[in-house]
């Protein structure tokens, strides 16, 4: 039987995930797209912690995965912000359409 508190956490995680996906696909600003990716990663973290607490309460696997994802997200954010700053310096804009020439 699934605990009632798990449903609430899964609902919050699902809401965070879909808000992040919606923000990623609808925004043209690179900073808001980066924040949307962070929302998606945080929804995964909520899932790991929720399932660790309610399904396997004696283990810490979910906590370790969450710490690993937080470290990866911090590195990803640092690299993305460096790219955004360089793009702004060269094009005076952080719009996705202005980054078209970065493909090649």
Structure at a glance:
With 104 residues, this protein is mainly α.
Explain how this protein is built.
- The structure is a single chain.
- This protein has 104 residues and is an all-alpha fold.
- The protein has a domain of 68 residues: Orthogonal Bundle (Helix Hairpins), CATH 1.10.287.
- The protein is 76% helix and 0% strand.
- It starts with a helix and ends in a 13-residue tail after the last helix.
- The mean pLDDT is 88.
Distance from first to last alpha carbon: 53 Å
For the biggest sheet, the summary is: none
- Give the fraction of residues assigned to helices: over 70%
The average pLDDT is 88
The number of distinct β-strands equals 0
CATH names the topology of the domain at 27-94 as Helix Hairpins
Task: Give the C-alpha Rg.
Answer: 17 Å
Shape verdict: elongated
What CATH first level of the domain at 27-94 would be assigned? Mainly Alpha
Helix-strand makeup class: mainly alpha
Core attributes:
104 residues, 3 helices, Helix Hairpins, elongated, mainly alpha, single chain, 0% strand
Topology:
Layout: H1 4-26, H2 30-54, H3 61-91
Helix pairs in contact: 1-2, 2-3
């Amino acid at each position: 039987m699934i605990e009632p508190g798990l449903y609430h956490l899964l609902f919050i995680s699902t809401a965070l995930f879909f808000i992040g996906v919606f923000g990623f696909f609808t925004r043209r600003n690179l900073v808001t797209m980066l924040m949307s990716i962070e929302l998606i990663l945080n929804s995964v973290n909520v899932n790991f912690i929720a399932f660790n607490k309610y399904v396997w309460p004696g283990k810490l696997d979910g906590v370790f995965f969450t710490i690993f994802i937080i470290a990866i997200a911090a590195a990803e954010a640092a690299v993305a912000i460096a790219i955004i700053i360089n793009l702004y310096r060269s094009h005076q804009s952080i719009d996705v359409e202005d980054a078209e020439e970065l493909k090649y």
